[in-house]
Amino acid sequence: MWESFACRRLFEGVSEVDTFRLVSEAKIPPLSTIRSDVPEALEEAMLGALTRDPDDRYNSGHELYDALS
């Protein structure tokens, strides 16, 4: 979903190894730095789904759905 709104890859390195490094670091750029028309609530919902620590992510698809609604 992040990539669809940003119109670019979330983790794209110059090589496969670099891409794996970026994935493992899981630094998610705020969508607001790429697009100013994305509502803050939507960005927060996406960040909640993409956070690196599994304990900080949504526990289910239903929770993500509720955040998006």
pLDDT averaged over residues: 93
Main β-sheet description:
none
Oligomer: single chain
Helix content: 40-55%
Describe the 3D structure.
The chain is an all-alpha fold and 69 residues long. Helix content is 49%, strand content 0%. The protein has helices at residues 2-6, 16-25, 40-50, 61-68. The protein is globular, with a radius of gyration of 13 Å.
Task: Indicate the topology.
Blueprint: H1 2-6, H2 16-25, H3 40-50, H4 61-68
For this entry, give a set of tags.
49% helix; 4 helices; mainly alpha; 69 residues
Concise overview:
With 69 residues, the chain is mainly α. It contains four helices and no strands.
